[in-house]
Amino acid sequence: MSSLSPLVAGEAPIGRADEIVQRITEAIHLGLLDDAERLPVEVDLAGQFGVAPMTVREALATLRDQGLVETRRGRSGGSFVCRPAGPPVEQLTARLAAMSISDVRDLFDEHTAIAGQAARLAAERAAPYAVRRLFALTDQLGSAVTLGDRIRADSRFHIQVAIASQSARLARREANLQAEVAGLIWLPVEPVVQVDPYVEELHAISAAVAAENAAEARRLAEAHIMGQLARLTQVNVNLTVGRGAS
């Protein structure tokens, strides 16, 4: 299965090159696509996204212009990922500033529902190796040095919880939600979002899953997402006020 599959499977056909660019860009920044990873050929990408090969060709041209993809010729050629050192902070900030309070609330309402149910089912169904993976990702977040590493470890943790639930639909929804929220929740970059309390929350969710305490796992996951909503709503207000004053 392609690394892009969680971001496209189960979704309606996208149909526009700029939306494909957004999906692939998000997959790169989330770490779902590794640096130097070879993308599927145009025909296969077109099939995954439900578009014509010409639309994929246009999207790849844009990604090359943005420096996110490199195309090589020859038998071992193709389109390869060029992951930047950091996330596109200015683009993320502009996207959050353009969202209304209701947009932010609706996004996190959905995420609360998906994350809570995924955590509950993970506590009931997760295999031991999946639980170990949750603790490993929590440790990765705690030791992450760059903003990009934090975003990737955090995103992978939430996707891993959904994978541990053994529900393919929940895993797809969580992957798509991470593409929308993963960069936003670490805004603003200055002052830096406090990592330690965040890591402690993820560790507590992991411990509840390991203890097979479904109710507690769900409660902790929902509280974690709602805490993000409260903070990000204030960031959104600050950005809106700042834009109005400029």
Automatic annotation (TrEMBL):
<dbReference type="GO" id="GO:0003677">
    <property type="term" value="F:DNA binding"/>
</dbReference>
<keyword id="KW-0805">Transcription regulation</keyword>
<dbReference type="GO" id="GO:0003700">
    <property type="term" value="F:DNA-binding transcription factor activity"/>
</dbReference>
<dbReference type="Pfam" id="PF07729">
    <property type="entry name" value="FCD"/>
</dbReference>
<dbReference type="InterPro" id="IPR036388">
    <property type="entry name" value="WH-like_DNA-bd_sf"/>
</dbReference>
<dbReference type="InterPro" id="IPR036390">
    <property type="entry name" value="WH_DNA-bd_sf"/>
</dbReference>
<dbReference type="InterPro" id="IPR011711">
    <property type="entry name" value="GntR_C"/>
</dbReference>
<keyword id="KW-0238">DNA-binding</keyword>
<feature type="domain" description="HTH gntR-type">
    <location>
        <begin position="14"/>
        <end position="84"/>
    </location>
</feature>
<dbReference type="InterPro" id="IPR000524">
    <property type="entry name" value="Tscrpt_reg_HTH_GntR"/>
</dbReference>
<protein>
    <submittedName>
        <fullName>GntR family transcriptional regulator</fullName>
    </submittedName>
</protein>
<keyword id="KW-0804">Transcription</keyword>
<dbReference type="Pfam" id="PF00392">
    <property type="entry name" value="GntR"/>
</dbReference>
<dbReference type="InterPro" id="IPR008920">
    <property type="entry name" value="TF_FadR/GntR_C"/>
</dbReference>
